[in-house]
Amino acid sequence: MDELKQWVNEIHLELSTRADKGRVADYIPQLAKVSSDKFGIAVAPVNGPVITAGDADESFSIQSISKLFTLTLALGQIGDRLWERVDREPSGNAFNSIVQLEQEQGKPRNPFVNAGAIAVTDVILGGHRPKEAIGEILRFVRFLANDDAINIDRLVAESEQAHGDRNMALAHFMRSFGVVRHPAAEVLGVYFHQCAIAMTCRQLAQSGLFLANNGRNPATGFNVVSPRRARRINALMMTCGHYDGAGDFAFRVGLPGKSGVGGGILAIVPNKAVIAVWSPGLDASGNSLLGTAALEMLAQRTGWSVFG
Amino acid sequence: MDELKQWVNEIHLELSTRADKGRVADYIPQLAKVSSDKFGIAVAPVNGPVITAGDADESFSIQSISKLFTLTLALGQIGDRLWERVDREPSGNAFNSIVQLEQEQGKPRNPFVNAGAIAVTDVILGGHRPKEAIGEILRFVRFLANDDAINIDRLVAESEQAHGDRNMALAHFMRSFGVVRHPAAEVLGVYFHQCAIAMTCRQLAQSGLFLANNGRNPATGFNVVSPRRARRINALMMTCGHYDGAGDFAFRVGLPGKSGVGGGILAIVPNKAVIAVWSPGLDASGNSLLGTAALEMLAQRTGWSVFG
Amino acid sequence: MDELKQWVNEIHLELSTRADKGRVADYIPQLAKVSSDKFGIAVAPVNGPVITAGDADESFSIQSISKLFTLTLALGQIGDRLWERVDREPSGNAFNSIVQLEQEQGKPRNPFVNAGAIAVTDVILGGHRPKEAIGEILRFVRFLANDDAINIDRLVAESEQAHGDRNMALAHFMRSFGVVRHPAAEVLGVYFHQCAIAMTCRQLAQSGLFLANNGRNPATGFNVVSPRRARRINALMMTCGHYDGAGDFAFRVGLPGKSGVGGGILAIVPNKAVIAVWSPGLDASGNSLLGTAALEMLAQRTGWSVFG
Amino acid sequence: MDELKQWVNEIHLELSTRADKGRVADYIPQLAKVSSDKFGIAVAPVNGPVITAGDADESFSIQSISKLFTLTLALGQIGDRLWERVDREPSGNAFNSIVQLEQEQGKPRNPFVNAGAIAVTDVILGGHRPKEAIGEILRFVRFLANDDAINIDRLVAESEQAHGDRNMALAHFMRSFGVVRHPAAEVLGVYFHQCAIAMTCRQLAQSGLFLANNGRNPATGFNVVSPRRARRINALMMTCGHYDGAGDFAFRVGLPGKSGVGGGILAIVPNKAVIAVWSPGLDASGNSLLGTAALEMLAQRTGWSVFG
To answer: Is A64 in the active site?
Structure first.
């Protein structure tokens, strides 16, 4: 454990000095405001205290990492019927591409592209009012992380909404195929709020523990999902969790992970730990540049890759 | 080990009685001749004797599984410069799609789609005559499997050649972008022969041992690749090894694997074993139907999924 | 003139007895209600009285033919600056395809695909309230046809709105590129109303006279557009006026024309006449089956093809 | 006629001084050698002597204009059965795109995209040896132009062959769908030679006279095609004759035309004349920049647009 702590500190220190930190997302003003110097790491072992370095206790916008939580929630609600609405294959196009959606008759490729996540949120909405669905998602994330201090950044949610035409197009498009069933504005009202959830690296790492521990959160003892479902969610993260950079992430890091344009990445080390990193500068595929590098270095030193 | 042998036998027995065995590939006559009743399983533990069931010692056409061997060979020859010629991302389209190739200026998505494998073969050709390159590939496969009895099925190779227009189109197309550099007919002459290599499940399982054992073949003691490269090849198999069914294979089986339209699948269990299955009937994505089912059941019983 | 009248009657009679009348559009309930037996023809010579046959004085939903009127109106408002917002090339895809729109960064291929027509309507909206823009379009159509009895079918407009997700997707998508500038719901509010304009074949034929007469309506004496602009609008109808069937229409009929899914087609015979046909049954490309056949026969007998 | 001669000279003079002459095609060395200063115009009225200006009697590579001749030849051989092999719709993609070909199962969009022209050449080959087919095409062009001095530029043909991977890819691709039936190398052997036919503006203008004169060559009195077929070929030139710039050419010039990357354009004025222009500099769509401008100016002054 002391060795792990040392590695985390070394990696944080080494990467902090890098000149090229990537490019902070600027498609919404609220994200563009974040300093590219922020950099946090948290590692939550399945059987030990959380190890942190840097800005690991500062909140940031989890953005697409929220798709992992809503996927888990929707699977809990309707089980494998979810796969009638969304597929499980990696997407060969950019994360918000509408082309592939048309080729496949409105069925999104996987729950981690925007279209797929919107379809999942439509499932969670399930006849409720948007406000209730937002509340349910937030409560679920607090339950997973075992931390009631987690909240939604309303300014980010509003900013998303004001720049949400591409996602509105996706929602209307899927509605025309019957894949999205609630009014597009309601579904996106929920979706923009889930993306605006703010969490720290520490909270994120804790929230993913059930995936590293066969479905059971070791901190709380709650069985969140079955061992089989935990494996399957990890598999989806491996093949689809990094937009059009999933192949590269698997190649370099070798762990299931889910990234967000806020600069966070959540990675699962089955049976061992959860790693959460945050650095707002992104690479060309929209994934955290330093965050990916940190995970690559940590996986290398610990030998945690699932691939041997 | 006795438990593993029992599981393999049970799974073979249970699946043998299934009515739906999928559809045997018929795009070349030589493949269409194979009986859909053939079904073999071989498991090669990293530290123990091979376990088999059914037709595990009957040769079949390995087809696209050969792409795994040529990838390894080409990486040995030019290392990471290979990634200038071919990408590492899963493909959202069918395995022989030319559309994506055009969108990406002739650079194939990964070494396991046909275009990517042809580009890899072009690297191996490397100025030699086709005959020499074919010989080199065959010798490498024999070396990996530690079995000099492995050969090429000339009838299959000729049949491929006679129905090779789609692959010829891919080769010429990449040549127009400078990604393929030798004459198209020469590159495909080699490619069709590598696809026509005939192996048994036992031989296949043995040939993959280096990937399950950090790059070193435990049967021969030879270091084939570095531990890091072994991990990376496994990662590529996980994200790209099953055409447009890679996401589903990871979801259901949870192991790196490479399939071929001859009905074979090679799956790696890091640090533990290699599994080779063969059943010629294919599913809609072109992967062995019973073979995938067998791997899913075996991974379930053994707990061998890399995802927890 | 008597000869022309006879031809029109003969063609109407001959086609009326055809068993295969095509398939009435059913994507909105209000269109699906129309009988497939309806069939009208009107020919308006530039220098003589209108000739009609069949249901030429019964109103029908002009649908996409309205795109011709809004294009003319928008060109009158902002001139050639319109071409910064929409291109002038035929589309190789179906009329409501979003794929091509993504490939071309949100700039529609031409003003007659749905996306292009929505962009044109956004121009006409020009800061006004939707109600005012709808009024302006209606007044313009009445002016062109020289008939104040023309109206909008409110039930059709509401039905379009209720099934408008695909068009909403297009509008939001173009908004994300800045090609559409008003709120999507406002633009489509106008668009759905323009498509719901109801006209008779006689009114349609009269409304197109300015295009057959170098920009000047011979019935009213008003110069609607310059001779050059009239030619150019005719050219656009020739290359883009029939969705993915423009090539076939030019090949068979040889006249500039614009069709609508309501079953109407407006065709221009430069310097000679305007032809309007209506038969609700559509062919596979979404163009009136009998209407196209009638135009082909009439162009053949009159020698009116522009191609010799 | 004197007026026409004056206009032709004025336009030639005015455009000759333009600084921006476009970019000479450089995809094969033989084309890249041609001076961008070359500029010729020839107008062949259906009932009068040919009028010329500039380099109208200098030979150049007709390239894709040859597709017009092979289309006419193939229609003469198998009639409307040709449309089972190739469609008649404008293409929304670049002239040598393979994407659309895949979406449409190997059937080319029209006879003027490369794929379509290759399929037409496959028809002409019709079991003969390539040499014979080349001879037949050349004799047909000489017959059309009424000039036995027309020849093939062997250096250009060889240069095309040496850089023909993209077209080889198209041929193999169509062969995989059964649309092309002869060996790809044979079909392209013919195709590269037809593209390498060298003609002057005068010869080109004469060769198109049958299309301006209801199928009958007024110079020789031969009926080349029926009036209906002449109209239809003109229609195809209008909607598909300028690659992805067909809409713009119709919009600006208003005449059926076929361009080639050698810088030539052949335009038909039904019942009046044929215009041939040549200037090697191309615009972004691959059509002659000055040539298109000359046609636009001439159509404007003469009022020859078919659109009014």
So the answer is: yes
